[in-house]
Write a structure and sequence with these properties.
six-stranded mixed beta sheet; 8 helices; alpha/beta; 25% strand; three-stranded antiparallel beta sheet; Rossmann fold
Length: 256
């Protein structure tokens, strides 16, 4: 049998979830009393007068996200949604439990976090691309398509500090999604920008999904969760309240 006719090799990892979360808990230690600034914080710490309380952002969260699935995360503000994404992205370490991620991750968490306000849009494309692991040559090859997608040719050589929040988010989304990743982490991207740009975001996310990428999607837009997601989890005060088909979970969340 020729190599061309030979069936693709079976890879056992293809059957494993893209994301496995087991007994995940995240604890923050916060000062019991408010302090006016870093100086007062340092003085209290030095004098051993700084008392803390434990705040659990996530408690015993367990779930699997399958390869090629669009998985929604819903819940009120402070429910632990963004904390969950940050742990999956590797930006936070679990206090308890473990997270296994299989594949290259593109995190769309804070779409201006990798930018510098004094650099131009053009310079920030290269800066953010480098932070995401791209070489200068890769960014060169993708630069025009990035700016086209963000629709920022008129502003690309202006300092980023002159950009609106929506313009910055458009540029961040365009850079972060300019190459295919195995896993896309999306935190309220559709809350910024105009309707036209939101539609472009959805189209690009759909293209990722069609090519086999896994998407973990935080949103307050419940209709988007119903339409886009295969399954969803409802978090409340860091705990899983429900998990299952997206429409069912959204309906349960609304009933509250």
């Amino acid at each position: 049998m020729s190599d061309a006719a030979r069936p693709p090799a079976f890879n056992e990892s293809d059957l494993k979830p893209s994301i496995q979360i087991e007994g995940l808990s995240v604890r923050y230690r916060v000062p019991r009393e408010k302090v006016s600034g870093i100086k007062e914080l340092a003085i209290r710490w030095a004098q051993r007068r700084l008392e803390h309380i434990d705040f659990w952002a996530l408690r015993e969260v367990s779930l699997d996200v399958q390869r090629g699935e669009v998985f929604g995360i819903i819940g009120h503000n402070g429910a632990g949604k963004s904390t969950l994404l940050k742990v999956v992205a590797g930006l936070l370490h679990p206090t308890e439990g473990r997270v296994v991620v299989r594949g290259r991750v593109a995190p769309l968490l804070d779409l201006g976090a990798g930018f510098h306000p004094e650099l131009t849009g053009r310079e920030n494309v290269y800066l953010f691309g480098t932070l995401l692991g791209m070489s200068r040559r890769e960014v060169d090859q993708r630069f025009e398509s990035i700016v086209d997608f963000a629709d920022l040719w008129d502003f690309v050589d202006a300092p980023l500090r002159t950009f609106s929040t929506g313009m910055t988010a458009r540029l961040g989304f365009a850079v972060a999604t300019c190459r295919l990743a195995d896993i896309l982490l999306v935190d309220e991207v559709l809350a910024v920008g105009d309707v036209h740009f939101q539609e472009k975001c959805l189209e690009r996310m759909d293209a990722f999904r069609e090519r086999g990428a896994t998407i973990l999607f935080v949103t307050h837009a419940l209709e988007n969760a119903k339409e886009i997601c295969n399954r969803a989890v409802w978090l409340s005060e860091g705990r899983v309240m429900d998990i299952g088909p997206a429409r069912h979970v959204v309906d349960q969340y609304i009933k509250g």
